Amino acid sequence: MTTIGSVAANFTRDLEENYRTIARYAELARESGVDFLVFPEAAIGGYLSSLGNHGDTVSTAGSLPPAIRLDGPEIARVQEIVGDLVVAIGFCELDDDGVSRYNAAAVLDGHRVYGTYRKVHQPLGENMSYASGGDYRVFDTPVGRVGLQICYDKAFPEAARVMALQGAEIIASLSAWPAARTATAANLQEDRWTYRFNLFDSARALDNQVFWVASNQAGTFGSLRYVGNAKIVDPGGNVLATTTLDEGLAVAEVDVAGTFAAMRAGMFHLRDRRPDVYGSLVEVSDPADERTLASA
């Protein structure tokens, strides 16, 4: 059996406060027997303070998250905190060129970084603050084969499918997912963006018959109001545990091998695919076609 934990919490530019939050949830996870713990997108240094649209300014240089190298002291500090606990955590990665920044995530423990990911799909002008990643991979870890994705990635079925085809057993989806910017619901749990966040989580788990772990920021930062709803979803799309809007830790014990054997004994979506009829999914569209779709 494997025990999975997912965090909903608030992370800002205050690195020392972030480390204290990471330590608090790591300790709660140990007390709950958690083997794999997922922190949100931008848990080290916070996310952008706002998101622009149609070319609006996103953030000034001074307000950007701190740029972190994989071999830098910030990642080492997290490893010191988590010890033998396997975690996935988000941060702003500084490229080797010393200039390019990526919205990134890593799966690691106190002894090793098992793999890293740079966010591919960027919403609402995020590309004004981050470069875009270019691939999806799956990493062997002590808790199984783990795939990573970040926030808006979950809206694209192809992202999770690529990792499922690489043998992902668990996909960690790290987010800084806010409520809608217009016509926001008085109760954020009923907000349309909260609904989409939760729907994507269940759909992607069921699409690929994998365990899905969604973490998210909670509270507020800059102009963004986050919707929490950290959760663990089983391969049937069933939510096993969730924080809803609140900060907290969602925990579920799962039998990865046993669940896969049961779920995939009958309808096995990966086996029953028809790639021979999916050609248009990977065709590069003409920019004029994209403009037509956008205006439809």
Protein architecture, described:
The protein has 296 residues and is of the alpha/beta class. It has a single domain, classed as Nitrilase/N-carbamoyl-D-aminoacid amidohydrolase (4-Layer Sandwich), CATH 3.60.110. The chain is 24% helix and 26% strand. The strands form two sheets. Strands 1, 2, 3, 4, 5, 6, 7, 8, 9, 12, 13 and 14 form a twelve-stranded mixed β-sheet that branches. A two-stranded antiparallel ribbon has the order 10-11. Helix 1 runs parallel beside helix 2. The longest helix has 17 residues. About 3% of the residues have low confidence.
Chain-wise SSE layout:
Layout: E1 2-9, H1 15-31, E2 36-38, H2 73-82, E3 86-94, E4 101-108, E5 113-118, E6 138-141, E7 144-150, H3 157-165, E8 170-175, H4 192-208, E9 211-217, E10 220-221, E11 224-225, E12 231-233, E13 239-242, E14 248-254, H5 256-263, H6 287-295
Parallel strand pairs: 1-2, 1-9, 2-3, 7-8, 8-9
Antiparallel strand pairs: 1-14, 3-4, 4-5, 6-7, 9-12, 10-11, 12-13
Helix pairs in contact: 1-2
Protein name: Acyltransferase
Organism: Dietzia psychralcaliphila
Pfam families: CN_hydrolase
